[in-house]
Write a structure and sequence with these properties.
The complex is a heterodimer of chains A (95) and B (489). Chain A has 95 residues and is mainly alpha-helical. Chain A has helices at 4-13, 20-36, 72-76, and strands at residues 82-83, 86-87. The longest helix of chain A has 17 residues, at 20-36. In chain B, helix 9 (306-324) crosses helix 11 (357-370) and helix 9 (306-324) packs across helix 12. Classes of the chains: A mainly alpha (95), B alpha/beta (489).
Chain lengths: 95, 489
């Protein structure tokens, strides 16, 4: 059974800040969905390989050639906080 | 040719005839569509962004090409709407989310490049459920889209905006994306044609990813011929999407001339059970009679794992989404929380503020299914059942050329009817989801009305049987008149 701690743990893993009330509401909704999906456990999958992609995919190789990429200014234009050619972020270490 | 239909309801192939004869210009056609949007958008909210100036510029360029004797593309001068999770260089692309407010892509999606070289005129970015997660378009951060047939009802989702735009004459054709039914279900609920191509037929480069192993871009149109023309314009290999396949793209529109005499059509009985509305069932059964009259052999078949497809989908898609949406961290683009003291806070708060309730639900569901201790029971189990579902379809296609089902068990429902119950909303996709799980082509075509609301018929083909699916749809359409009906707005 899904517990409030499970919801808070996954919220931390997926980096979404969450109030206790929000976690409570989500717990109820997710528990009902997961409960419905228990039916999967009844399907016999012994010796069945998992499918990642539905069509046959093979690893794609390409020549190791230099190609132009998007201009730096065009890409940085969307960043909320830019310092010359860098994206500025809040402190990562010592917090 | 008669001009009985108003300009904004011309199909692209009807418009092309008039354009060729000099009886219509792309500027006139584009203006008629833009004026239609001006008149209806307060009611429908089918667009998040309209691009009238760029559209008229593109229309003038198309008219100039035509006067100069070409060369002309298959959609030259035709007004097209694009779902707002498809990147357009220099035009805001939100994916229906607050977290991408203000984001302007520095590049075009592959399909947008293809549309440009086909001569298309882009009129705007269609509204959608946030990150394409939803079945009613009520999860958009920019407000819900309304169904043109009854503005108290939903248009379906997640591509509700492009579907409503085409149904209402705010665009001639449109592009959507379909992860579990997001093109076919809104096409059904809005009374138009919508197709999810075989996985890999159309490049996903520039499509904001939801569930990469299931996502596929495809067309909306007011008839099957337009659907085939639009698919032909966007299909083909692209080295920037490693899952796009290197195959010759057939001339889909040219292949529509053949009949379906002797063709074998399967009706999987599992699609006709729980929750199907009587009016939908009646319209579907009437469609089967049309196929028999056209000389097709229609037989019942069974796909016993259909019931499990929903569970497989709602474990795999959220799992992939939880990884794909990790990129929205508040550093590189879009919304960034002003409250943060550390980089970790920036991520936690940006995502808390920027994502809506359904997106959070799916990220958590996916994160849970992928987390230590649950991976085998949920994620891997779902991938194994996916293998079995593929096998079940493969065996059905040894007996049948195509499968036919209703697209949705219900007609368009009222706004707010399912928003409090995620599971009820998820059940809206029960007929469309298996097709994505197996990577198959599927189309929805109008097949009648129930309580004055459109009903959709789904035709499913084997992998790369996109031409077969279009041909069956076209033969049905030619024998019926549902596709000529338009909402009175």
């Amino acid at each position: 059974m899904l517990t409030p701690d499970d919801v808070r743990r996954v919220a931390r893993l997926t980096r979404i800040a969450m109030t206790d009330h929000e976690a409570d509401v989500l717990r109820g909704q997710l528990a009902r969905v997961l409960d419905h999906f228990q039916s999967l456990q009844r399907v016999d999958t012994s010796d069945v390989e998992p499918t990642g992609h539905a069509t046959e995919t093979t690893s794609v190789m390409r020549a190791d050639e230099v190609r132009s990429s998007l201009p730096r200014e065009a890409v940085l234009k969307n960043a909320p906080d830019v310092d010359e050619s860098f994206i500025r972020v809040k402190p990562v270490l010592g917090t | 040719m008669s001009r009985a239909a108003p300009l904004h309801f011309l199909t692209s192939h009807e418009a092309q005839q008039l354009l060729r004869r000099g009886e219509l210009s792309s500027v006139e056609l584009t203006r008629s569509v833009l004026e239609r949007a001006d008149a209806l958008e307060a009611k429908l909210q089918a667009f998040i962004t309209t691009t009238a100036d760029l559209a008229l510029e593109a229309a003038r360029a198309s008219d100039a090409r035509r006067r100069a004797g070409g060369p002309l593309g298959p959609l030259d001068g035709i007004p097209v709407a694009i779902k707002d999770n498809i990147s357009t260089r220099g035009v805001a692309t939100t994916a229906g989310s607050k977290i991408l407010k203000g984001y302007v892509p520095p590049y075009d999606a592959h399909v947008v490049e293809r549309l440009a070289s086909a001569g298309a005129v882009i009129v705007g970015k269609g509204n959608l459920d946030e990150f394409a997660m939803g079945s009613s378009n009520e999860n958009s951060a920019y407000g819900p889209v309304r169904n043109p047939w009854d503005t108290g009802r939903v248009p379906g989702g997640s591509s509700g905006g492009p579907a409503a735009a085409v149904a209402a004459g705010e665009a001639s054709v449109a592009l959507g994306s379909d992860t579990g039914g997001s093109i076919r279900q809104p096409a059904a609920l809005c009374g138009i044609v919508g197709m999810k191509p075989t996985y890999g037929l159309v490049s996903r480069h520039g499509l904001i990813a939801f569930a990469s192993s299931l996502d596929q871009i495809g067309p909306f149109a007011r008839d099957v011929t337009d659907c085939a023309i639009t698919l032909g314009a966007i299909a083909g290999h692209d080295r920037r999407d490693s899952t796009s396949v290197e195959r010759r793209v057939p001339d889909f529109a040219a292949a529509l001339t053949e009949d379906i005499k002797g063709m074998r059509l399967g009706v999987p009985k599992e699609y006709l059970v729980a929750g199907i509305e009587p009016g939908v069932r009646a319209a579907f059964e009437a469609a089967l009679s049309v196929f028999r009259t056209l000389g097709a052999v229609v037989e019942e078949c069974s796909l016993p794992l259909t019931d499990q497809a929903l569970a497989v989908y709602y474990l795999l898609a959220p799992s992939e989404a939880s990884a794909n949406l990790a990129r929205f961290d508040g550093f590189k683009y879009g919304h960034s929380s002003g409250e943060a003291a550390t980089a970790w806070d920036t991520m936690d708060l940006t995502r808390a503020e920027g994502f809506g309730a359904e997106v959070k639900r799916r990220i958590l569901l996916g994160g849970y299914a992928l987390s230590a201790g649950y991976y085998d029971a949920y994620y891997r189990k779902a991938q194994q059942v996916r293998t079995l579902i593929r096998g079940e379809f493969a065996r059905a296609f040894e007996r049948f050329d195509a499968l036919v089902t209703p697209t949705s068990p219900t007609v368009a429902f009222e706004l707010g009817a399912r928003t409090e119950d995620p599971l009820a909303m998820y059940l809206s996709d029960v007929c469309t989801i298996p097709v994505n799980i197996a990577g198959l082509p599927g189309i929805s075509v109008p097949c009648g009305f129930a309580d004055r609301l459109p009903v959709g018929l789904q035709i499913i083909g084997p992998q790369f049987g996109d031409g077969t699916v279009l041909r069956v749809a076209h033969c049905y359409e030619q024998a019926t008149e549902w596709h000529t009906r338009h909402p009175a707005l």
